[in-house]
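From the shared-data thread, chain only:
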Amino acid sequence: MRSSNPVFSRRGFSRDNGYAGFNTAPQAGGAAVGTQGNPYAQPQAGNPYAQNPYAQQDLQHGAPPQAPATTGRMTIDDVVLRTGTTLGILVVTAALAWALLPVDDANISRSYGIGIGAALIGMVLAFVQAFKRKASPALIVSYAAFEGVFLGVVSSIVDNRIASGAAMQAVIGTLAVFAGVLVAYKAGWIRVNRRFVGFVMAAALGFILLMMVNLLFAVFGGGDGLGFRSGPLGIIFGVVGILLGACFLALDFKQVEDGIAYGAPREEAWLAAFGLTLTLVWIYMEFLRIIAILNSSD
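Structure, as C-alpha coordinates:
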Protein backbone atom coordinates (compact mmCIF):
# COMPACT_ATOMS: atom_id res chain seq x y z
CA MET A 1 0.00 0.00 0.00
CA ARG A 2 1.34 3.41 -0.89
CA SER A 3 0.62 6.79 0.58
CA SER A 4 -1.21 9.44 -1.39
CA ASN A 5 1.63 11.75 -0.41
CA PRO A 6 4.02 11.81 -3.40
CA VAL A 7 7.05 11.96 -1.12
CA PHE A 8 6.24 8.80 0.81
CA SER A 9 4.91 6.92 -2.21
CA ARG A 10 8.07 7.61 -4.19
CA ARG A 11 10.77 6.81 -1.68
CA GLY A 12 11.44 6.03 1.93
CA PHE A 13 8.66 3.92 3.38
CA SER A 14 7.40 1.74 0.52
CA ARG A 15 9.33 -1.25 -0.76
CA ASP A 16 8.69 -4.11 -3.19
CA ASN A 17 5.33 -2.62 -4.20
CA GLY A 18 4.14 -3.26 -0.68
CA TYR A 19 3.63 -1.31 2.47
CA ALA A 20 6.78 -1.22 4.55
CA GLY A 21 4.79 -0.34 7.61
CA PHE A 22 3.83 -3.85 8.63
CA ASN A 23 6.59 -5.82 10.29
CA THR A 24 5.71 -9.50 10.19
CA ALA A 25 8.95 -10.70 11.71
CA PRO A 26 8.31 -12.98 14.72
CA GLN A 27 9.13 -11.44 18.06
CA ALA A 28 9.35 -12.77 21.58
CA GLY A 29 6.35 -14.92 22.34
CA GLY A 30 5.85 -15.75 18.66
CA ALA A 31 3.67 -12.70 17.86
CA ALA A 32 3.99 -10.87 14.58
CA VAL A 33 4.43 -7.17 15.20
CA GLY A 34 2.20 -4.86 13.16
CA THR A 35 -0.06 -7.51 11.64
CA GLN A 36 -2.83 -7.32 14.20
CA GLY A 37 -5.79 -5.48 12.73
CA ASN A 38 -4.18 -5.61 9.29
CA PRO A 39 -5.59 -8.54 7.30
CA TYR A 40 -3.80 -7.66 4.09
CA ALA A 41 -0.22 -7.61 5.39
CA GLN A 42 1.14 -10.76 3.74
CA PRO A 43 4.85 -11.67 3.52
CA GLN A 44 6.06 -12.57 0.07
CA ALA A 45 6.84 -16.25 -0.27
CA GLY A 46 10.47 -17.04 -0.96
CA ASN A 47 11.62 -13.50 -0.27
CA PRO A 48 13.41 -13.27 3.10
CA TYR A 49 13.58 -9.49 2.81
CA ALA A 50 9.80 -9.03 2.45
CA GLN A 51 9.32 -8.91 6.21
CA ASN A 52 11.60 -5.94 6.79
CA PRO A 53 13.07 -3.94 3.91
CA TYR A 54 15.72 -2.49 6.20
CA ALA A 55 16.95 -5.84 7.56
CA GLN A 56 20.51 -6.82 6.67
CA GLN A 57 21.64 -10.18 5.32
CA ASP A 58 24.79 -11.71 6.76
CA LEU A 59 26.26 -12.93 3.47
CA GLN A 60 29.38 -14.43 5.04
CA HIS A 61 27.53 -16.80 7.34
CA GLY A 62 24.30 -17.06 5.33
CA ALA A 63 22.30 -15.91 8.33
CA PRO A 64 18.69 -14.82 7.83
CA PRO A 65 17.96 -11.09 7.85
CA GLN A 66 17.87 -9.57 11.29
CA ALA A 67 15.97 -6.60 12.64
CA PRO A 68 17.96 -3.41 12.07
CA ALA A 69 20.06 -1.99 14.84
CA THR A 70 18.69 1.05 16.57
CA THR A 71 21.85 3.11 15.89
CA GLY A 72 21.36 5.47 12.98
CA ARG A 73 17.67 4.66 12.67
CA MET A 74 14.82 7.12 12.46
CA THR A 75 13.02 8.01 15.68
CA ILE A 76 10.00 10.15 16.42
CA ASP A 77 12.37 12.79 17.82
CA ASP A 78 14.15 12.93 14.46
CA VAL A 79 10.85 13.43 12.65
CA VAL A 80 9.73 16.14 15.08
CA LEU A 81 13.07 17.96 14.83
CA ARG A 82 13.20 17.90 11.03
CA THR A 83 9.55 18.84 10.69
CA GLY A 84 10.02 21.70 13.15
CA THR A 85 13.06 22.89 11.19
CA THR A 86 11.26 22.77 7.84
CA LEU A 87 8.12 24.49 9.13
CA GLY A 88 10.23 27.02 11.04
CA ILE A 89 12.05 28.06 7.87
CA LEU A 90 8.74 28.28 6.03
CA VAL A 91 7.23 30.51 8.72
CA VAL A 92 10.29 32.79 8.88
CA THR A 93 10.43 33.34 5.12
CA ALA A 94 6.65 33.88 5.05
CA ALA A 95 6.98 36.54 7.74
CA LEU A 96 9.84 38.21 5.86
CA ALA A 97 7.84 38.20 2.61
CA TRP A 98 4.86 39.69 4.45
CA ALA A 99 7.03 42.49 5.84
CA LEU A 100 9.27 43.17 2.84
CA LEU A 101 6.86 42.67 -0.06
CA PRO A 102 4.01 45.18 0.40
CA VAL A 103 0.71 44.57 -1.33
CA ASP A 104 -0.51 48.14 -1.61
CA ASP A 105 -1.73 49.48 -4.95
CA ALA A 106 1.74 50.61 -5.97
CA ASN A 107 3.55 47.33 -5.19
CA ILE A 108 1.03 44.51 -5.40
CA SER A 109 1.93 43.50 -8.96
CA ARG A 110 5.64 43.24 -8.16
CA SER A 111 5.04 41.43 -4.88
CA TYR A 112 2.58 39.01 -6.43
CA GLY A 113 5.00 38.32 -9.28
CA ILE A 114 7.76 37.51 -6.82
CA GLY A 115 5.38 35.26 -4.88
CA ILE A 116 4.34 33.35 -8.01
CA GLY A 117 7.98 32.98 -9.03
CA ALA A 118 8.83 31.60 -5.60
CA ALA A 119 5.90 29.18 -5.85
CA LEU A 120 7.14 27.86 -9.21
CA ILE A 121 10.65 27.40 -7.88
CA GLY A 122 9.28 25.65 -4.80
CA MET A 123 7.19 23.35 -7.00
CA VAL A 124 10.22 22.40 -9.08
CA LEU A 125 12.27 21.69 -5.96
CA ALA A 126 9.43 19.59 -4.54
CA PHE A 127 9.23 17.49 -7.72
CA VAL A 128 13.01 17.03 -7.80
CA GLN A 129 13.04 15.83 -4.20
CA ALA A 130 10.00 13.61 -4.73
CA PHE A 131 11.81 11.75 -7.52
CA LYS A 132 15.19 11.48 -5.79
CA ARG A 133 16.14 8.16 -4.28
CA LYS A 134 17.42 9.78 -1.10
CA ALA A 135 16.42 12.74 1.00
CA SER A 136 18.27 15.96 0.28
CA PRO A 137 18.08 18.34 3.27
CA ALA A 138 19.28 21.20 1.06
CA LEU A 139 16.42 20.68 -1.40
CA ILE A 140 13.85 20.31 1.39
CA VAL A 141 15.03 23.42 3.20
CA SER A 142 15.12 25.39 -0.06
CA TYR A 143 11.59 24.24 -0.87
CA ALA A 144 10.41 25.44 2.54
CA ALA A 145 12.08 28.82 2.04
CA PHE A 146 10.56 29.50 -1.40
CA GLU A 147 7.17 28.13 -0.39
CA GLY A 148 7.26 30.44 2.61
CA VAL A 149 7.79 33.45 0.34
CA PHE A 150 4.76 32.46 -1.72
CA LEU A 151 2.58 31.87 1.35
CA GLY A 152 3.68 35.16 2.86
CA VAL A 153 2.69 37.15 -0.23
CA VAL A 154 -0.64 35.36 -0.77
CA SER A 155 -1.52 35.54 2.92
CA SER A 156 -0.72 39.25 2.99
CA ILE A 157 -2.93 39.89 -0.04
CA VAL A 158 -5.89 38.04 1.46
CA ASP A 159 -5.37 39.49 4.93
CA ASN A 160 -4.85 43.10 3.87
CA ARG A 161 -7.15 43.38 0.87
CA ILE A 162 -9.94 40.84 1.38
CA ALA A 163 -10.37 39.65 4.97
CA SER A 164 -8.51 41.08 7.94
CA GLY A 165 -7.21 38.30 10.17
CA ALA A 166 -7.58 35.64 7.46
CA ALA A 167 -4.01 34.38 7.81
CA MET A 168 -4.33 33.75 11.55
CA GLN A 169 -7.70 32.07 11.05
CA ALA A 170 -6.15 29.77 8.43
CA VAL A 171 -3.25 28.95 10.74
CA ILE A 172 -5.61 28.11 13.60
CA GLY A 173 -7.74 25.99 11.28
CA THR A 174 -4.69 24.10 10.02
CA LEU A 175 -3.43 23.44 13.54
CA ALA A 176 -6.90 22.28 14.59
CA VAL A 177 -7.07 19.80 11.71
CA PHE A 178 -3.56 18.53 12.50
CA ALA A 179 -4.35 18.08 16.19
CA GLY A 180 -7.73 16.51 15.50
CA VAL A 181 -6.37 13.97 13.02
CA LEU A 182 -3.46 13.13 15.32
CA VAL A 183 -5.79 12.49 18.28
CA ALA A 184 -8.19 10.48 16.12
CA TYR A 185 -5.34 8.44 14.66
CA LYS A 186 -3.71 7.68 18.02
CA ALA A 187 -7.11 6.80 19.51
CA GLY A 188 -7.76 4.34 16.70
CA TRP A 189 -10.77 6.22 15.33
CA ILE A 190 -9.04 6.40 11.95
CA ARG A 191 -7.91 3.07 10.56
CA VAL A 192 -5.50 3.33 7.67
CA ASN A 193 -6.22 0.18 5.68
CA ARG A 194 -6.38 -0.73 2.01
CA ARG A 195 -9.97 0.48 1.65
CA PHE A 196 -9.13 3.82 3.26
CA VAL A 197 -6.16 4.36 0.95
CA GLY A 198 -8.18 3.39 -2.13
CA PHE A 199 -10.90 5.87 -1.24
CA VAL A 200 -8.42 8.69 -0.60
CA MET A 201 -6.51 8.02 -3.80
CA ALA A 202 -9.69 8.00 -5.89
CA ALA A 203 -11.02 11.16 -4.23
CA ALA A 204 -7.69 12.95 -4.62
CA LEU A 205 -7.44 12.01 -8.29
CA GLY A 206 -10.96 13.26 -8.98
CA PHE A 207 -10.34 16.47 -7.04
CA ILE A 208 -7.11 17.25 -8.89
CA LEU A 209 -8.62 16.49 -12.29
CA LEU A 210 -11.56 18.81 -11.61
CA MET A 211 -9.22 21.58 -10.50
CA MET A 212 -7.13 21.16 -13.64
CA VAL A 213 -10.23 21.36 -15.84
CA ASN A 214 -11.37 24.44 -13.95
CA LEU A 215 -7.95 26.04 -14.44
CA LEU A 216 -8.00 25.35 -18.17
CA PHE A 217 -11.44 26.92 -18.53
CA ALA A 218 -10.26 29.92 -16.49
CA VAL A 219 -7.13 30.37 -18.63
CA PHE A 220 -8.82 30.04 -22.03
CA GLY A 221 -12.32 31.20 -21.19
CA GLY A 222 -11.57 33.87 -18.62
CA GLY A 223 -13.36 34.52 -15.36
CA ASP A 224 -13.52 31.81 -12.73
CA GLY A 225 -13.62 28.90 -15.15
CA LEU A 226 -16.30 26.44 -14.09
CA GLY A 227 -16.67 28.14 -10.72
CA PHE A 228 -15.09 25.34 -8.69
CA ARG A 229 -12.86 27.81 -6.83
CA SER A 230 -15.30 30.64 -6.24
CA GLY A 231 -18.76 31.16 -4.83
CA PRO A 232 -20.73 28.34 -3.17
CA LEU A 233 -19.01 25.67 -5.27
CA GLY A 234 -15.66 27.08 -4.25
CA ILE A 235 -16.57 26.75 -0.57
CA ILE A 236 -17.72 23.16 -1.09
CA PHE A 237 -14.55 22.23 -2.93
CA GLY A 238 -12.48 24.00 -0.29
CA VAL A 239 -14.07 21.87 2.43
CA VAL A 240 -13.43 18.76 0.33
CA GLY A 241 -9.82 19.86 -0.04
CA ILE A 242 -9.45 20.20 3.73
CA LEU A 243 -10.97 16.76 4.27
CA LEU A 244 -8.55 15.30 1.74
CA GLY A 245 -5.71 17.04 3.54
CA ALA A 246 -6.86 15.44 6.79
CA CYS A 247 -6.81 12.04 5.08
CA PHE A 248 -3.31 12.75 3.80
CA LEU A 249 -2.25 13.51 7.36
CA ALA A 250 -3.57 10.15 8.55
CA LEU A 251 -1.60 8.40 5.82
CA ASP A 252 1.49 10.42 6.70
CA PHE A 253 1.19 9.49 10.38
CA LYS A 254 0.90 5.83 9.46
CA GLN A 255 3.89 5.97 7.16
CA VAL A 256 6.02 7.65 9.82
CA GLU A 257 4.90 5.22 12.51
CA ASP A 258 5.68 2.22 10.34
CA GLY A 259 8.98 3.65 9.11
CA ILE A 260 10.09 3.95 12.74
CA ALA A 261 8.88 0.44 13.52
CA TYR A 262 10.85 -0.90 10.57
CA GLY A 263 14.02 0.92 11.53
CA ALA A 264 14.18 3.30 8.58
CA PRO A 265 17.48 5.18 8.25
CA ARG A 266 17.64 8.43 10.19
CA GLU A 267 18.00 10.57 7.07
CA GLU A 268 14.52 9.52 6.00
CA ALA A 269 13.16 11.70 8.80
CA TRP A 270 13.72 14.52 6.29
CA LEU A 271 11.29 12.80 3.91
CA ALA A 272 8.76 12.57 6.70
CA ALA A 273 9.20 16.28 7.44
CA PHE A 274 8.89 17.11 3.75
CA GLY A 275 5.70 15.12 3.32
CA LEU A 276 4.08 16.56 6.43
CA THR A 277 5.00 20.08 5.32
CA LEU A 278 3.43 19.53 1.91
CA THR A 279 0.21 18.33 3.52
CA LEU A 280 0.03 21.21 6.00
CA VAL A 281 0.61 23.75 3.23
CA TRP A 282 -2.24 22.13 1.26
CA ILE A 283 -4.61 22.43 4.24
CA TYR A 284 -3.57 26.01 4.99
CA MET A 285 -4.18 27.12 1.39
CA GLU A 286 -7.64 25.54 1.37
CA PHE A 287 -8.56 27.35 4.59
CA LEU A 288 -7.24 30.63 3.20
CA ARG A 289 -9.22 30.13 0.00
CA ILE A 290 -12.48 29.47 1.88
CA ILE A 291 -12.00 32.55 4.07
CA ALA A 292 -11.32 34.69 1.00
CA ILE A 293 -14.45 33.39 -0.76
CA LEU A 294 -16.65 33.96 2.26
CA ASN A 295 -15.48 37.53 2.67
CA SER A 296 -15.55 38.31 -1.05
CA SER A 297 -19.27 37.57 -1.12
CA ASP A 298 -20.06 39.94 1.72
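The longest strand covers residues 63-66.
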